[in-house]
Amino acid sequence: MPKTVLSKNYYLTLIATALFTSTYYLLLPVLPLHMQAMGGTNFNIGLIMGLFSASSLVLRMTMGKACDRIGPVKIMQWTVYAFFLTPLFYLGDSLLLLGADQLLYGFTIGSFTVSSATLVTISVEKEQMAQAIGIQSIALIAAKGFAPTIGSFIYAHFGLIPVLALTCLLALATLGVTSRLEELPPAAPDSGISFLKVISYRMVWAPSIILITTTFTFGNIMTMLPLLAVERGIDGYGWFFTINTLAVICTRLITGRQEKLSLERLIIFSLVIIFIAVAILALAYSFQVLAFSAIIYGLGYGAVYPALSAIVVNNASAGSRGAALGFFTAAFDIGVSLGSVWGGMSEFLNFTFVYFLASLVPLLGVLCCAFLMKREKIEAET
């Protein structure tokens, strides 16, 4: 099979990833409202929602080796089978069970994401890697953006059961797609570079810290936005996710072609935009302000992640990129988990205060970018 971006394996992997990612993000805006109806406090909800990213973090750090031993397609399929257990946790009407369910969601989504990314990297030629990953990131963003809007609409009009049914249908569709995938042997790892050496380099851990300051706001927004909207009487809050997604996609299409700003300057500019967007959200009491915040946040978030990723990739040797990106993407989950837990503090503090303090966190990323970024190349041990 020719290993090109236009290959059957690549596009099938893209479709499977978008379908399976949507299974959880359909429920993302629904779960906080469901738990609130069960009597959960904002603090409990924040902790429970944070369990998703915490368990996903564990899988991102370990599943790459399993893909090397077993094969990414098998991991993808086993992950989908495990996902079918998730609806059972809703039968007990218990917050404890939903906490366990979030752990299972995190394990399945984290495992599937890593295995599908591994399959992408071995399904395309090296010179087409950037293009392939760029297309995949847009597809993932679209799934994460449109699925919450659909889930919010179904839940508001028909309740929880139809949302759960749709997640199962999407999981079945994912199995159908993965059954058509061709298992490919993974590339041999570079044994000359240790994982500890890779993550000790400034151009790996510094971008990772900056990513945490960014995804902190993401976790805060995605976990508590439904509750903020209900408290303030903002209708149509589900459209925030779609509007934000469209802004992210447009930004990534534009910034991928811009050459005027260095990556460091683009990161600093984007972090300032994110600060402004979250500060606006803290004061949002109407759908118009909510939508404006979604656009501004999408502009900042859409630019900062690819720029940080490019710095990590450009400063890592070919044999260390997998380990470097594994550590870097784990920072995504750390930030989301911390942001979700901080969102739970709205149980004791008002939403304005919680979101305004969250808006200040990206400014720490600005300081990190200004003072910690120092280019260096990761070389193999001799």
Write up what this structure looks like:
The protein is mainly alpha-helical. The protein is built from 14 helices and no strands. The protein has helices spanning 8-25, 30-37, 42-70, 72-83, 95-121, 129-158, 160-178, 195-199, 202-232, 239-255, 263-282, 287-314, 321-343, 351-372.
List keywords for this structure.
single chain; 14 helices; 382 residues; disordered N terminus; globular
How large is the share of residues in beta strands? under 5%
Average pLDDT number: 78
Helix percentage:
over 70%
Shape summary? globular
First-residue to last-residue Cα separation: 36 Å
Compute the number of helices.
14
- Oligomeric category: single chain
SSE order, as H and E? HHHHHHHHHHHHHH
**Rg, please?**
20 Å
- Provide the low-confidence segments as ranges: 1-5, 377-382
Layout of secondary structure:
Elements: H1 8-25, H2 30-37, H3 42-70, H4 72-83, H5 95-121, H6 129-158, H7 160-178, H8 195-199, H9 202-232, H10 239-255, H11 263-282, H12 287-314, H13 321-343, H14 351-372
Helix pairs in contact: 1-5, 1-6, 1-7, 2-3, 3-4, 3-5, 3-9, 3-13, 4-5, 4-7, 6-7, 6-10, 9-12, 9-13, 9-14, 10-12, 11-12, 11-14
